[in-house]
Amino acid sequence: MEITAAVVKEKGSNFELTKVNLDKPGAEEVLVKIVATGICHTDMVARDFIMGAPNFPVILGHEGSGIIEEVGADVHHLKVGDHVVLTYGFCGECEICRTGHPAYCYEFFGRNFSGADIEGNHHHHELDGTDINDNFFSQSSFATYSIAHKNNVVAVPKDAPLEILGPLGCGIQTGAGAIINTLNVKAGSSVVISGTGAVGLSAVMAAKALSATTIIAVDINEERLAFSKELGATHTINSLKENVQERIREILPLGVQYGVDTTGRNEVINNTLASLAPIGELAIIGVATKPLELETNVFLTKGYKIKFVNQGDSVSAEFIPKLIKMYQNGQFPFDKLIKQYAFEDINVAIEDSEKGRTIKAVLLIDKYATSV
Questions:
Q1: Could you tell me which residues come within 8 angstroms of residue 351 by beta carbon, excluding any fewer than 6 positions away?
Q2: Which of 99, 156, 176, 247 matches a 20 to 30 Å C-alpha distance to 166?
């Protein structure tokens, strides 16, 4: 079938809305009419080829939401008409997946970043038949239609606003999951969250939902810090203006119990560790551009636990509906992070995201499809 997709034709170039052909879904796949798709930092990283995969031309997008229009013969838990959120790909069969940790699947790279499905096939083709790199996070949802594997398609309630649910598939579940799944933050406890982008602010909201009583947000952006207070932060620290360690010790003389880092920066991570109470725990989400260096001679006697976190340690089929229920109950107002853009304004949305003007951009793709 002929669809419209946002194609990146070479490293660092703009997204171009292009007519392409999409195959029919295979036996374990579903065809989804995309209603909306969130924009994530990982899309920009792939556009700029920082990860080295996938190659070009490529169709990105990995926070899709939509409605199933066709299911493969071996798909039994989903049906035509289901409202769904698309999330990361995983095999579902390896030891890691079977023990409840699909975000660390042995096939994670191949199913999310290789530019093809696990067998090396492409679903998208130029009108002359030339293959296009795709299957980004097993979905490539910067398009009017997407083919996804049955494992990474999560059915959601039809009374939930489908046009804002896509970011639950990656960025928002990552931040919230670090608090809820990885750290299992306890009621009445304390947490410091470094970075107030969509991931960090999702962590702030999750910490409040779990009734943490001291929630410290750290950033250099005063607007974002002020906004974090609206979402649940009890204290904020501008690391350009204040000494983070000293300020945290003023708030909590014995140190903070939990930390979340979304920056990947050495100095930020070391500041957080130095601010933890003994046996404190740190979840690292941020993608680093330099090797991580830790002052182990200082931290060795503290019993700290450090965990690198992918996708919030989430089993998405369980966690995304949980986040939706929390949203519907008023406990997790992630809609406050979102600004919506027309699909044809994708490059404006990307620029606004990169420059910090928008926390979480969402493309309204279905409106484009019905207007052309």
A1: none
A2: 99
Distance CA 117, CA 103 (A): 17
- Regarding pTM above 0.85, the answer is yes
DSSP codes of every residue in 66-81: EEEEEE-TT--S--TT
Q: Do domains 2-169+333-369 and 172-310 have the same CATH topology?
A: no
Task: Look at residue 64 and give its three-state secondary structure.
Answer: strand
| CATH numeric code, 172-310 | 3.40.50.720
List, for residues 81-104, the tens digit of each pLDDT value: 999 999 999 999 999 999 999 999
| CA 94 – CA 96 distance, rounded (Å) | 5
Can you name the CATH fold of 2-169+333-369? Quinone Oxidoreductase; Chain A, domain 1 (3.90.180)
Segments making up each domain of the chain, as ranges: 2-169+333-369, 172-310
Residue type, 321: P
**With contact defined as beta carbons under 8 Å apart, do 94 and 106 qualify?**
yes
Q: Which two tokens stand for residue 261?
A: 């880092």
**Tokens 């190659």 -> residue:** 55
Residue ranges for the chain with pLDDT beneath 50? none
